[in-house]
User: Fold this.
Amino acid sequence: MVLTVLGTAAAEGWPAVFCACEVCQLARELGGKEIRRRASYQVGDTIHVDWGPDSYNSMIAFDMDYSSLEHLLITHSHWDHWVPRELSWRSRGYSQIPADSHLMVYGNSHVRERLDQELPFSLEDCALSFKQIEAFEELDLGVATAVPLPATHAPSEQPFVFLLQVGDSEVLIGHDSGWFVDDVWDYLATRQLTAALIDTTFGTRDERRGHMGGAAVVETMQKLEEIGAMSPDCRRIATHISHNCGSSHEQLVDFFAPHGIEVAYDGLEVEL
Ligand SMILES: [Zn+2]
Ligand SMILES: [Zn+2]
Ligand SMILES: [Zn+2]
Assistant:
C-alpha cells in the first residue's frame, strides 16, 4: 500500500493566492516541487486524511480516484484541512454512488459542527456517517488502524495528529501539531515508526508553539529516536510548510538534509 502526500503547504497554499513574496514568485516561475497545495493524504484506495480546499485539485494532479474512499480522517476544523461543502457532491443528482458505498468521517466536535452547518444535504443523502474521535482511542479502518493523538495546535478545539498502522508499517501524520505533550511522547515510545511526517510550518525558523520549524523539527526527530519510537530505517519527513518561511524547496533540503530529514513535496509517496 502507498501513502501519497497530496499537499504540503500551510493554510494559504504556495504560491499563496495574493502573495508577491520572493518564494511565491519563484514557485510561479519554476513550478514543480516549489508548488505546495493545502495538506491532505491518500492511503491506499479507501483512506484519506483531511479534506481541504485542494483535495479536488490533488485528485486531478496525482491521478487519484476518490470514488472508492471509505474512511476520511479530519485532524481539526481549520479551513485548510476541512471543507465539508465538498462532500455534498456525493448526493443524488451530483454523483453516481454505488448502493453499498459509504464514507465514514472521523473528527472532533468542531469538525462535526461545521459538517452540520455547511453540508446542504443530510448525511444519509450523501451516504456519510460521522464518528467523534477521542485521544488514544484506536479506530478500525479495515486495512489499517488509526490512533488520534492530541496536538497543541489550536487552543479553541482539540486537534489531533494520527498514528496510522498498516501491517508492520507505522506512520505518524503529524502536521499542525505544536510540540507534543508528555502523554503523546509516552505513547509514541511504545511504537516503532517507519515514517514520521512532522509539522514544519516555519521552515528553518525555530518555533514550537502551535506550529513548528527548524530546530524543533530536528529535536522532535531526535527525541523520537531517543525514546525508541523509530524503526532503524524510519523516514523522517518535514511537511506542512508556509511560504512565509522564505526558503525555497532547495534551501529547505539543504537545511534539513544534514539531520537525515527529507523535505516533503506534493506527490511524495511513502511505501507502507
Ligand atoms: Zn494547517
Ligand atoms: Zn508568499
Ligand atoms: Zn490548523
